[in-house]
Amino acid sequence: MTTPTLPENGEHLLARATAILAKGSQIEIRNLVRSLYPAEAAFVLEALEPEPRASLWRLIPPGVMGEVLIELNVEVATALLAITDRKDLMAATEQMGADGMVDLLHVLPEPLLSQVMESIGVHNRNRFEQALSYGEHTAGGLMSREVLTIRADVTLDVVSRYLRLRGRVPAGTDSLIVVDRKDSFQGVLAISQLLTHDPHTKVSELMDTKSPGISYKTPSRDVAALFERRKLLSVPVLADDGKVLGRITIDDILDVIREEADHSLMSMAGLTEEHDMFAPVVASAKRRALWLGVNLLTAFLAAWVIDLFEDTIQQIVVLAVLMPIVASMGGIAGSQTLTLVVRGLALGQISGGNARGLLFKEISVGLLNGLIWAVVVAAVAGVWFHNPHIGILLGAAMLINLVCAAFSGVAIPVLLQKIGVDPALAGGVLLTTVTDVVGFMTFLGLATLFLL
After folding, report:
1. Which residues, listed in sequence order, are joined to residue 408 by a DSSP beta bridge?
2. Distances in whole angstroms, Cα of residue 418 to Cα of each of 187, 222, 345, 413
């Protein structure tokens, strides 16, 4: 009896690939390539440095090159395309399915894209041009064009014979799409219904007419939310006139969810999910320079606020020791709120109806935490520097900054989204600026008022 094996996690897979490449045995490397699924090969390629990445890529057969390319991020795919023989790429396109071809066409550089489009024939070229006309981040860009439609006025037996004549069904098929004589969407028939009911029953008696069909214009984020809310496995995609254009399956949505998560994480550092981890130093430095420049401006703003109280700091030097505590606590509290709100906005859970309630709740949390930790830091600072007045001022400044941080953590991302700016990209910088400026201003301002 064969013992089942567990799939390798990413860390183990990368370690095995790195060890095999380090040995340099062509036989072992080729065996490694043959053992990898396209997504696994893409994962390994993205994690390798440029030289071993190129060595491994050259050993990938043209038959699977296209499938690997569509799994790679754009920057890595572009770099590998530059070292790929054009004949191999043309061979790769010939062996891909229609949906894979559409995904591949999105990453091909222009000269090669034109060559591929001319080589696939007029019928396919028109079909692919239409597919490329849909927005990449819409239901039309996500959908598979391979669909199986049936009519409502036929029996289950007729449907079963039709499927047997076809010999196959599209991958991921959990239901059949029911259309009328004009190919307009009517509903769906679950495969489970087809298999478990009397063959003489008509499709119209069992089909689900409440099953959703979505417009090809629907943003991919909204499609993912629909799948999550209704626990869908697939959904038909419709034209403006109600005709069926294609379908989206759960595996397409998993890609969307992963991309959204990558986007949110990378945006908070001013990067994009398409960056190559091993891009050249100069190129990486250029990308990060702008973001560092923005942060530098905000740092100068905070420094300017401190400079306003130079005389106060010179007279009470201990303030310079304590003031980073206020800014730091405000920054942490604000980041907690900001992360919660950015996630809620991404999931569509925050709207005009509940934003005010969320704002009030977060301010209340900031106030409660502010009171608790204000007492703690006031006591510690008072004992440490033998000056209860400084402790009280430090606690008061922290309370004010935590409440302000909570307010900003809600207000900043909501306002950014309203004006069309990605909250994940700009929210962190603005929040840090607010908490630093307010923290320094309140602590040093209170000290100036009450201690001098």
Report:
1. none
2. 36, 17, 11, 9
